[in-house]
Amino acid sequence: MSKDTVTNEELPACHQSVAAEPAEPSAPSEPSCHSAAPTSVDSCCDTPKGKPDYLLWVSGAIVLACYLIELFAGGSAWIPAWLATMSSGIFELMNTMWWGLLMAVVFVGALDRVPRELVMSTLGQGGTFRGVARATFAGLLLDLCSHGILMVGTKLYERGASLGQLMAFLIASPWNSLSLTIIMVALIGWQWTLVYVGLSLVVGIISGLIFDALVKRGTLAGNPVALELSAENGDKEHQDVAVLPELMRLIKGGTYTPAAIGAMLRDGLRDSKMVFRWLFFGLVIATGIRAFVPLDTYQTLFGPTVVGLLLTLVAATIIEVCSEGSTPIAADLVTRAGAPGNGFTFLMAGIATDYTEVMILRDLTKSWKIPLFLPLITVPQVLVLGWLLNQFG
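Now predict its structure.
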């Protein structure tokens, strides 16, 4: 390994375990719904073991209390106006998204049975359109938050992914996970959800191609690991992977007994704690805005105007909320402010301007230039697309 190669010791402590050189993969065993789930990558959003998850319990308690207040005492004169607004908002949103939460648990449990190596193997050769596109779509199969996806991205970079593949993977992945996509359908409908997913993929692919082009021009430094790999060995590595047959083998070899399905649901519920934590927090923030910011003021500040779009960009930059927490806030921008472009901007700009992501990319690439190019390349695309969505939405 060359002196420029990013080593495990050089990465932040919370990322060293995933950035370490992976061991030679062993032959996958026969899968089953009741088999032990693969060891998952811990997220920076996860609470350290042994410590109470205060964000989950406090946010969950507020959501539960507001829901029960609206259920049993909705419309009562003794309830303060702000509490009545928050309670009715949480009651409405929970009744809208409950099925999405349930399906998210199912999909998370099922996806946990798919080896992570199989998901990562969908990456193609770096520096090509196909490689960037495959890296973008690979991110859709991983059910991780914006910070958890960073940890997987560092491992992909260690394994030789190009800079463009890494950026495409990070840009398009966080809120496009299966669980959040289902929840977005429940909140804003499948039409807008498909538009958001499609446009985020476009931004991811275009940005990835731009980053790879800048590497070829010498403007940005490439991945030193990728530079050490010969093109012949790299092509062979990706051509030997038969993703679809392996996936079909996993499905056919699964066990679908009641006990196995129950174990899958329990695993899905356990692994969805990260999603629930930030979703509940996002619900509290979104309904708090409803309670303390009048609708006309909200629509004026964050409406479908250029000023509203720019204010949304500023809010997304300042507010450090994980992708799960951004989802209900973005949905409120669509439904209450009538600004679908602002909702899209809030989701995408939150990824592009996340300072945790910037700092980790700096440590990973040993360069300030590369992470600062992330918002420089992506934010203009997001603003243009957000403006178009506001104009024609």
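The mean pLDDT is 77.
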